[in-house]
Amino acid sequence: MQPLTEIVSRTVVLRERNIDTDQIIPARFLTTTERKGLGKHAFNDWRTRPDGSPDPHFPFNRAENIGARILVAGRNFGCGSSREHAPWALTDLGLRAVISAQIADIFRSNALKNGLLPIVLDETIVDELLAQPGVELRIDVARRSVTLPDGRVAQFPLDAFAQTCLLEGVDQLGYLLKQADAISRYEQQRQSQELRHAS
Questions:
Q1: Which CATH architecture has domain 6-158?
Q2: How far apart (Å, rounded) are the C-alpha atoms in residues 152 and 33?
Q3: Which helix (H) or strand (E) covers residue 118, if one does?
Q4: Exposed, middle or buried by CB within 10 Å (0-12, 13-18, 19+), for 47?
Q5: C-beta of residue 119 within 8 angstroms of C-beta of residue 96
Q6: Where is the Aconitase A/isopropylmalate dehydratase small subunit swivel domain (predicted)?
Q7: Residue pLDDT tens, the chain, 199 long
Q8: Helix axis angle, 160-168 relative to 105-113, nearest 10°?
Q9: Would you say 165 and 112 are in contact if contact means Cβ atoms under 8 Å apart?
């Protein structure tokens, strides 16, 4: 993962509530453990017409949203089954943050493990953003803040460990591996103490 310190981007908006993981990445595309390439299937059943052609009205098919890295979505985003492919698909689509008034716990956990920042803001602020697609936001991971188009700054919750992993660009295993020297020193000290006590 790349370190995530700041995101400055226009928003792409999905106003629907209760967007579940099967809508994010339909089950028929879960036949791979590769993350790359899943973005083309994100929101597949909404992005395509019955004949398989792209729906030009769907936000992710619109030219002005190409390159947007922040999704603003309706309440209860990521509900449904536990599906790590969901954040994989969103990051492969180019997103680095999802903003909603409520984000499902399991999706939130999976997102943080995969370098996607789930941001919960007050519903009145989210409603403003849902009504203004394409505005530019600045997200500061270290300060846990979102700077809104009018200059207001909104804080969001983010636990310290997840924040550290995002800032350093590591997952949980990567974080532990970075502590390998400290772990080895601790083990050597413990062994020395046990030998002293035994003698």
A1: Alpha-Beta Barrel (3.20)
A2: 41
A3: strand 117-120
A4: middle
A5: no
A6: 2-123
A7: 789 999 999 999 999 999 999 999 999 998 877 788 899 999 999 999 999 899 999 999 999 999 999 999 999 999 998 889 999 999 999 999 999 999 999 999 999 999 999 999 999 999 999 999 999 999 999 999 999 999 999 999 999 999 999 999 986 545 454 555 666 666 767 776 776 776 6
A8: 30
A9: yes
Instruction: Return the structure tokens found at 68.
Output: 């947007």
Q: What's the CA gap between 17 and 108, in Å, rounded?
A: 16
Contact criterion met (CB below 8 Å) for 8 and 65: no
User: Measured on CA atoms in the order 163, 166, 169, 172, is the torsion positive or negative?
Assistant: positive
The structure's pTM equals 0.86
Q: Which residues contact 58 (CB under 8 A, 6 or more apart)?
A: 43, 46, 47
The answer to whether the beta carbons of residues 100 and 74 sit under 8 Å apart is yes
Strand order, beta sheet including 136-140: 117-120, 97-100, 70-73, 6-14, 136-140, 145-147, 153-155
85 in Cβ contact with 29 (< 8 Å): yes
Angle, helices 85-92 vs 105-113, to 10°: value is 60
Domain ranges of the chain: 6-158, 169-199
